[in-house]
Amino acid sequence: MNGQEPATPSGTGALRAVLFDMDGTLVETEEYWGEAMFSLAGQLGGRMSAAARAATVGTSMRVAMDVLYTDLGVTRTEAQAQGDVDQILDAVARMMTERLVWRPGAQELLAAVHASGLRTALVTTTPRRLADLVIAHIEAGYRGGGPFHVTVCGDEVPARKPDPAPYLHAMAWLGVSPAESVVIEDSLVGVTSGLAAGAAVLGVAGLQAVPPAPGLVQCGSLEGIGLAELADVLAGRVTAGGPAA
Fold first, then answer.
1. Which residues does UniProt call coiled coil (predicted)?
2. pTM more than 0.70
């Protein structure tokens, strides 16, 4: 986990923090994971189904590999599975280095949140060595440091999404309560993690359908989403009687 100095909680209930997922939420990197997994499936003598690919969105590598192997009907030893994971990570790292594309409206929203002085976090299941490639790309557009007060990666927390631990960890570091926080996510496991942490969640349409849930507001993209809309997402969570801490 990388971060600036942690803050002290106020417990006011007003919007104080925005916590962003990375893959498929801020940047168009989900396609890289898909490309790498489809390539591996071909090497294993099969073809990964669209349903299986969708089921891997936002998950850990272990879960994604289990989905892939089940879909293909293959069995791999622990050593072979680790080799498959390494191959996918290397392929995705190469693609991230070559090209990164923002999701619609994401760059503008992040800039607005940063300029407002709200606390910010990047919370991703992606391992640190890959996430840092994206973080460096994002930070290059900011002077005097990046837009995130803390970044939390999947290999730095005791439990990964859909467990609430990653978001609870980030909120504790930021010094904010769930009642003061909006999480922005595109996947079912990410939305589940944010809601389980007690935050209001803005779900962005992506590769995976996310069913309605209390505390969740869904949008087609982040285009047109600003501070006022984020405040409305949080207000809806509070009005609905969501967790205050």
1. none
2. yes
